[in-house]
């Protein structure tokens, strides 16, 4: 139901009951539960999304488009050199990038360790046990929806370091609006991460190329690469390529 909500922005009890082949009472009960979790807003006969770009807590998004995101993560990881410094923000796709970086062939025996800087609590948790990764975690206030650290402490940390790569997940990306997030505090940290990097990579499944989101991160001119899946709309891909972005299809 949350996937459908993210696509349409709203759901109707009778329609979704037929789609899922369950009773309307089951749908109403589940929508009430999601309303109690502040994930949807109940309406007469259904529910609506609570934000423009539907910002589900990461634990509810982890299975969505998993195979696409794993391929995107691997392709983005292949851009990174053995001893590079990589910034990663939060999100399910950047989590796949972190996993691909951590397990790639020869990583544990490399003479120089990879450095990963992140404001994502879940990514930090996974990489802590990887001895070949030098892990730098920003401070900040945790946002439970994305497991990201934001605020002055995160900003101060990032302002003092330089990155070879900023690999960022976003809520929306296109040639007109650039990169966008659903939360202004996350957008501020992502913007600084991009400024501190020599190269900026957006990792986003194709649904993000036609999405809308509230907060501006940076214009398309600041982005070097987009790594997305092969279902990306041709017009969106061409528009980004015309804007100077190297688009890689996983």
What's the Cα radius of gyration?
19 Å
User: How many β-strand runs?
Assistant: 15
Shape: globular
Question: Could you list the spans in which at least 5 consecutive residues all have pLDDT below 50?
Answer: none
Number of helices: 10
- The domain count comes to 2
- Give the SSE order as H and E letters: HEHHEEHHEHEHEEEHEEEHEEEHE
User: Which CATH architecture of the largest domain is right?
Assistant: 3-Layer(aba) Sandwich
User: Major beta sheet, specifics?
Assistant: 7 strands, parallel
> CATH top level of the largest domain?
Alpha Beta
Summarize it.
The chain is of the alpha/beta class and 250 residues long.
Label this structure with key terms.
250 residues, alpha/beta, Arc Repressor Mutant, subunit A, Rossmann fold, 2 domains, seven-stranded parallel sheet, three-stranded antiparallel sheet, 37% helix
């Amino acid at each position: 139901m949350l996937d459908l909500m993210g696509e349409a922005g709203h759901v109707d009890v009778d329609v979704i009951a037929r789609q899922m082949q369950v009773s309307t009472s089951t749908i109403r009960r589940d929508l009430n539960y999601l309303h109690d979790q502040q994930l949807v807003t109940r309406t007469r006969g259904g529910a609506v999304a609570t934000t423009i770009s539907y910002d589900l807590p990461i634990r509810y998004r982890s299975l969505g488009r998993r195979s696409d995101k794993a391929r995107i993560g691997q392709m983005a990881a292949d851009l990174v050199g053995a001893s590079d410094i990589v910034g990663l923000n939060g999100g399910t796709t950047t989590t796949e990038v972190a996993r691909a970086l951590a397990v790639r062939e020869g990583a544990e025996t490399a003479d120089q360790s990879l450095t990963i800087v992140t404001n994502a609590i879940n990514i930090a948790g996974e990489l802590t046990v990887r001895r070949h990764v030098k892990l730098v975690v920003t401070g900040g206030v945790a946002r439970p929806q994305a497991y990201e650290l934001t605020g002055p402490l995160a900003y101060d940390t990032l302002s003092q370091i330089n990155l070879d790569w900023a690999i960022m997940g976003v809520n929306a990306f296109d040639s007109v609006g650039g990169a966008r997030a659903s939360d202004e505090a996350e957008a501020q940290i992502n913007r600084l991460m991009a400024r501190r990097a020599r190269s900026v990579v957006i990792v986003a499944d194709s649904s993000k190329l036609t999405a809308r989101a509230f907060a501006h991160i940076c214009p398309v001119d600041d982005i070097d690469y987009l790594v997305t899946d092969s279902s990306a709309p041709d017009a969106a891909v061409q528009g980004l390529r015309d804007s100077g972005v190297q688009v890689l299809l996983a």
